[in-house]
Queue: 2 jobs
Job 1
Amino acid sequence: MAYFLAVANRKGGVGKSTISVMLAHAFSAWGHKRVLLMDLDAQSNSSLILLGGSQWIETQRNSKNVAAFIEDRMYALNPIADYLVHNVGDVTDAQGRKPQLSLLAGSLAFEDMQDELITHYSRHNTPFRQAKLKCANHFKQALGFAAPLADVVIMDCAPGLSNATAAALTMAAKVVVPFRPDAVSEYAVDRIASIIEGKDYDGVMAIPPEKRRYICVANAVRPGGRDGTIIDTIAFNHPTLATQVPQSPDVANAFDWSEERQTMEEKYGTSITPLRELYQELLVSLGAV
Ligand SMILES: Nc1ncnc2c1ncn2[C@@H]1O[C@H](COP(=O)(O)OP(=O)(O)OP(=O)(O)O)[C@@H](O)[C@H]1O
Ligand SMILES: [Mg+2]
C-alpha cells in the first residue's frame, strides 16, 4: 500500500512543484519505487515537467486527468487506473531503464470542477460547512483508490487551501513544506503547520517536533547571512531538514521536460548533490517507505 506524501504551502512559487517532481524522480530512479505523482493544481506545472506540453494537452483532450477522474466519481465508479499516464518523466535509472513513474495529470478544469463538486454536495439545503466536508471526503476517497497502485504517492498541492489540498493534507502520512526564506515564509509555515496538525500555534508547539506530521525544507537559498537567519528562526519552531536547496539555474532548468531521457546527473546538473541529500535525509525522516 502506498505511502502518501503531500507537498504543500499556502504560499505560491516556493518550489512545491519543483520539489514534488525532484522527489518523484528520486524515489523512482534511485529508490526503485513505484511512484505516482498527483498534480492537484490547475496550473499543472508538475504535469508539464513530467510530460511536456503536447502530451499534457493529450491528457486534457482524452480526459485522462485529475479533474475528469474526480468529476466522473460523482456519477460513476470508474477506477483511478483509467486516468493515469505511465512512464512519465525524462530520466533513466542508473541502469538506463525507465523508472516506474506515473502521473495523475493536472487540469485547467480543476477549479471549475471543485465548484461543481461543492454545488453537488450543497443540494437539499445542506449547510456549507457540511458540504465542504463532504467534498473533502469525496476527494479523500477518490484519491485513496491509488493506494494499491504505487509504493509512494506524491501530491503536489496548489497554493491556497482548496478542497483538494484540504483532503491531501489530511490523508498524507507526511507533508513536505517547502519555503523560500523571505519575510512571509515564517507566517506561511506557522499557518500550514496549524492546518496540518489541526491546532492553533501554541497547540502545534506543544507537539514534539519528531511527532509532527510535516517537515519543512528551505528552497532557493542564496549564499549570505539573511536567508540563514530566516531559516534558523523557522527551524527553531518547526521540524526542518538540514538539507537546503540552493537557488540555482540547474534547479530552474530542470523545470523543462526533455524529449530525450537523461540520467539524473544530466537532468539536475550541479543540483544533483542537494537533491541526493534531500532524498537521503527525507528517507530517514519518513521512516518506512
Ligand atoms: N531552488 C531553485 N532555484 C532556482 N529556481 C527555482 C528553485 N526552486 C524553484 N525555482 C523556480 O521558481 C519557480 C516556482 O517554482 P515552483 O513552480 O516549483 O513553485 P510552486 O510552489 O509549485 O508554485 P505554485 O504556488 O505556483 O504552484 C519556477 O520557475 C522554478 O523553476
Ligand atoms: Mg506548483
Job 2
Amino acid sequence: MSELRFDQIRKRWVIIAPERRKRPFAICRIDESEEGECPFCEGKENLTPPETFAIGFSGRKPDTPGWRVRVVPNKFPALKSDINLTKLHESDYFLSLNGFGYHEVIIETPVHNYPLWERKIDEIMDMFVAINERIKFFYKDRKIKYVLLFGNYGKAAGASLSHPHSQIVALPTIPEIPKNEMDSSRKYYIKNKRCLICNILKEEIESGARIVERRNGFIIWEPFASSFPFETWIIPENHECDFSNLNNIEFEKMAFILKDALLRINKFLKSPPFNLVLHTSCNLNYINKKERDIIKKSYHWHLEIISRMTQAAGFEWGTGININPIPPEEAAECLREVKL
Ligand SMILES: [Zn+2]
Ligand SMILES: [Zn+2]
Ligand SMILES: [Zn+2]
C-alpha cells in the first residue's frame, strides 16, 4: 500500500508507492507496435477498470462504446479510495498518512491519434465538463483537501500511453506548490484587500510584453519569472478561485483559448512534449466561512502549460532555481507572431 510521508526538513509531501513498480515502463507502452492493444481506444472498454464518469449518447450503458469522454480509475494508482484515511506515524520527525485518495484517468477522446489542439471546440468542452464533474465529486469527500488535474503529452513529458488522456489525483493534503501559491495570495490579500494575480495581470495587460493573446476574458501569458522556456499560463481575466465554478459559456471560451495556446506552441516549437497542470482552489466545502471567503477572494485559478525542452539537473535539484534560457518576453513575442 502506498503512503504519504511528510518531509519535515523540506516541508513537502512525498508519496511512497511500491505498487507503481508494477506499472509498465513508459518507453515500452508508448511504442507504436502496441497501439492495437490500446486500452483507451473505443471498443476496448473491458481493458480498463469500470468507468466512474462518461459523456456519450443517451441510453449508452457504462463501459461500452459510444462515449466521447470517459473517466476510469488508474490501473496503477498512486493513491486508493477503498481504504480509510489513517495516520500511520505522528511524531516530531515522522508524519505519514496511508495512501488514501483518488487517482483517475480522463480518456479525453475515443480516437487514438487525436491531440488536444486538433480537436473541435465542443470536444475540448466535453473534457472540461468531465474534469469539472470529477472535481465536484471529489470535493464532496471531506477527507479530500486538494485535487490536481494534469496531463503528460509525449514520452519526454512522462506519458506512458500515447492515447490522449489526462489524470486527476485527489489528495488528503494540499501539496507544496498550490499551497505556496495559496499562501502568498492569502498574505497579499490580507495586506492589500486585492487578489495578487488580478493586480499582476492588470500591469501585464498595460505593458503587453508578456501577453500572447487576450480573448473573451482569458489571457495567454508568459509569467515574469517563468521557470521553463515557453512556460505558458491560461488565466481568466476576471477573478475566480475555482475552476469548477465555470459554466458552459466559459468552458467554450476556455476551449478556444486553450486550443489557441497549444496551436501556437506546437507550431512554433514543432510539437514539443508538454505537461499541463490545473491549479484551482483547495476543497472549500469543509473549512470555516472566514477562511473560505479569504481563499475565494485571494486565489486565482489558472492552467499552466510547460513545454519539456529543458531537463532539471544538479543545480535545479540542489537550489530549486531553474535556469530558463528563453526570456518570457521573447517567448511571448514568438508565440504572438505565430500565424494560426
Ligand atoms: Zn488508443
Ligand atoms: Zn484574481
Ligand atoms: Zn500555479
